Amino acid sequence: MSLQCKICGNEYTNKAFKWCKPCQINYLKRNFINWTSGNENIDEFIKEMQFKINSYYDIIFEWIPYSHFNNIKEISRDDYITIYSAIWYNSPLYYDEHKIGYTRYQFCRYKNVNLKCLDNLQITTNEFLNKVNAYSIKRQDNIRKIYGISQNPNTKDYIMVLEVNSIYCEKCNKKYTEISHKWCKPCQLNYFKSTNFTNWTSGNKKIDQFIQNMQLKIDAYDDIVFEWIPYNQFSNIKKISNDDALYLAIWKDGLLCYDEKINNQENQNKNIALKHLCNPQYIGYYMKLSKVNAYSIKRRDDIRKIYGISQNPHTKDYVMVLEDSYCPKCDGKYADTSYKWCKPCQLNYLKSNFTNWTSGSKIIDQRIQEMQLKIDSFDDIVFEWIPYNQFDNIKEIYEYGYITIYSAIWEYGTLCYDGNETEYTRKQFNKDKNVTLKLFRNPQTDKFLDKVNAYSIKRRDDILKIYGISQNPHTKDYIMVLEVNSEYCEKCDKKYTDIFHKWCKPCQINYLKSNFTNWTSGSKIIDQRIQEMQLKIDSFDDIVFEWIPYNQFDNIKEICEYEYITIYSAIWKYGSLYYDSDRTEYTKKQFDKNKNVTLKLFCNSQTDKFLLKVNANSIKRRDDILKIYGISQNPHTKDYIVVLEINSKYCEKCDKKYTDMSHKWVKSCQINYLKRNFTNWTSGNESINKFIQMIQLKTDYCNGIVFEWVPYDQFNDITEMVDNHAKVYSAVWKDGPLYYYDNIKEWTKKRNTSTKVILKYLHNSQEINNEFSNEYNTLYGISQDPNTKDYIVIQAENCKKCDEKYIDVIHSWYNPCKIHHLKKNFTNWTSKNETIDDFIKKTQLSNGYFNDTFEWIPYTQFNDIKEIGKGGFATVYSAIWKDGPLYYDDNIKKWIRKPGANKKVALKCMRNSQNITEQFLREAKVHSKKTSIYILSIYGISQNPDSKDYIMVLEYVEGGDLSKWINKNYDKFNWSYKLLSLWNIVRGLKEIHQKNMVHRDFHTGNILIKNEYWPCIADMGLCGKVDDNYDIDEKDEKKVFGVLPYVAPEVVLKVGKYTQASDIYSLGMLMYFIATGKQPFYNRAHDQYLAISICGGVRPEISEPEAPKCYIDLMKRCWDANPDHRPNIDEIFETMKLLNDSKQPQEIRNQLEEAEEYRKANPLSIEVIQSNTHPQAIYTSRLLNSITKDFPMYDNINNITAEYIDFTAE
């Protein structure tokens, strides 16, 4: 490969892009005669600018005719400068390394530019050209770019043609001081100096100078512009101090704000504070030292803000205009600005009021004062001493222990803070307030006050509120004055566990504990268990587990008996306890009397074992477990009894929910029955016995087959059948198989019933394990010929599902109904191509065990066909498939289509595929064999009747490919989602590799997004077995295809075929894209120079904390130059599993958190990436042989690096 310029023979200035500076300068010189501005100075300047190019990427400064601009619109005007937006339809020059010259790219036409027009009457040509030098032709400079000069043919004004870039100020072309708000400090300062200073005056030079200095201190867009504010701008002026120094007012116009989006109305009628400065002759001293400088114009400072200065026209006092979020009394910031509440001042007010009340007890007074000084918010309750005579309508609610609860009306109500008056007052709306009085009889003062701490004065706390303390003047008992709140228990003042039902768990537990002495079973162990069960209640509707005397049961009737258990039905006279929310206690309800229950009596059981049985049932009414009400005892036999609910959903023997409700069948019960029956039969062979027992224990439903040992003498009419592979007989089984009977809830044989069966002879018992261990659900069991000693497998003569005879007697479990129906349908369709027909038939028969199938789909079935993408070898369309796919309905035992399906699908049309290719069929086969949700599904094959191109009908994926999806959603694509998405991609690739296959074209375009973070792998056209050789063409030339940055170096250099290791290399590049949002080598042409760089070890740059270290380490191992050093898919899968695990090591969690913080702090600009993407960076699959054709063949990966170095040294 030549690295010398083809024109001059010297080495390229830039080898990668074949750019030779001397030759390109000469080209520009030769082009001088093709343009002119009509002004020698301008022409000379443009030539000098063109000679300044140093890189292929530099802008070619041009004379641009005014006629090349369209859609010219004025943006701004300032003195002698006018800025316009325009569209330059011809676009800038770009260097094309293939043409080895400059050209105008089609994709860059109609470029948006700014035109900066300077008035010729106020500026000379030389001055204009000096201003041009403020801009740059270096694309990589951090200075605004200029494309050239133009001239308005009408006004003759010269124009600078500039890039459109929102980060630069349109007036001075410097980068905005604050880009997001388009705020330029130099321009704003110039505005104040040149314009604003002359538009106002205070009438005092020193004041004016001070204001101007303050205005020039602004550093941010949201700094306050310090102003002279005429006094007539203020209204509603209200004095708030006694010394005429402080006032509140409304400023009509409000302060200046910098933001073109803000409506000035938002700042009008602004609340402010006015602080008068006396002795105006000393105003300079006050300004500079002690007054104004104590305030701030920085909005982000935590210092009181000052808006400017005014003057009272009557008193001539100067006035500071301040924000009103500070207390006028102490000048401190309000603790709550909206309510003008100042904590220090309010505490001082309360302290000063201590002398205006007393309880008559120093200890009580001290506690009230302490409580008052705990306020932290304007809406905290001011804890008070409340005279008893302020309560009316006092009524006792109830009494318990030494406490009596009353309801009452508090005549004056609580103190409330008034933000307008900035003081506490009693409000009209709060008078005659309902309260609860909690009276403590004869308490010690200290103990009473300890009780006060259980309540809160914080209105926002989730604790019952207390207003203060009072005292009954007659009994001298102290009283707590509490809020009335239906959410709190009146006994313990805690929030109800269940507010709606007024159920308080602690109080109800205490009630049950206090009731323990009112009952006994006569057994300490039983009593203890009942108490434990009672204390487990968590809800108002939990069952209160009880000791139930036997004499409470009537109409006791035996239902059944098994082993040591007898089950009875009975009527419980009083029924269970229910919680009464009106009385807030447990009681027996009328509706629950004479309750039907089940009594489960355990004969002669030990107490401990009996109590273990109790744990199988539940006291939770909402649990899906049989409920238990309590324990009783037969007084005659002394047997203990479990008292249970009657529920037809549960088995009476085991108390488990029926597995099959309609047949009253419980798997666990029936499995136990079969276990107990193991002793009633034997094959005479321990291995066979264990095999049969194992299969019996897998019985899952009542109408299933119970696999059995069947004695040979059970068979009659044994007749040999013709079979080329085995000894097969038909026979009649006298007793027939076991059936489950609902009425007795057991397996049994039908009376006077015989069953036709097939007997298949086996050579040895090992054959049973090898061939039939997974197919037991279609077989009746095993027998043995007593003469030959051969074991026999017994199966039904007909298919259990469709009642048809099996197509293949020996392999009956291979879905005879499904396969048979598909075979019968073969004559109803054709593609008119024998190869395609054979392929579809074989695929249908091999996939017959699925509930969907592969089809030939006529093209007329598709509507609304739209192109949605184009790859290197195919075009993809979306379409609506009218009838939709076939699926097998197990209920009706047929293949059917959903009515009105109108299923959206993707049509992959292989270009020039009129003659069906091995590659097309291979891709269809791989898609049809997939078993993972992470690989795209295929429905069948079709053909375009016009082009005759064959089409794969695939699952339609809404999200598009990974690259497009991430470009749209990168702002929410955090590290949790990145790792989950990558793990799902790895799952799909793992399935491919586990089948000993290679994808061969693994890149972002072949990863489709089904929905958020659910990717699937597509485009299996190149996927095949590890040892396939279809990457060699007819001339034995190695074919290289794909997206260059994703192709492994050993494939590029033809060291070997595509391998699973080359897929892992592609996965490493995919990891880079997921981590950064940037395609690998997006800013470089995908040509032989990039290929050389990749083979020489160049990889995309990435470092911590952009991605976690553990992630980067794995990624770099994946793209290692030596395929032997790359991890396999199993190792990657396990690593991704760890990274997605919520219990990952702390070190990894720290790395992930750091990467996530970095992502938030450095948001990705997709627009910037797209603007910097090289026009020859190609991310669709293509043949790459034109790039790699000059590369030598290698036979050893270890030689690549050395030979690459020698190659580039030429």
TrEMBL record:
Record keyword ATP-binding present: yes
PROSITE patterns: PROTEIN_KINASE_ATP, PROTEIN_KINASE_DOM
Keyword tRNA processing found: no
Alphabetical list of CDD domains matching this protein: PKc
Residue numbers binding ATP: 898
GO terms for MF: ATP binding; protein serine/threonine kinase activity
InterPro entries: Kinase-like_dom_sf (IPR011009), Prot_kinase_dom (IPR000719), Protein_kinase_ATP_BS (IPR017441), Ser-Thr/Tyr_kinase_cat_dom (IPR001245), Ser/Thr_Kinases-Pseudokinases (IPR051681)
Matches recorded under PANTHER family: RECEPTOR-INTERACTING SERINE_THREONINE-PROTEIN KINASE 3, SERINE/THREONINE-PROTEIN KINASE TNNI3K-RELATED
Protein name: Ypk1p
Organism: Rhizophagus irregularis (strain DAOM 197198w)
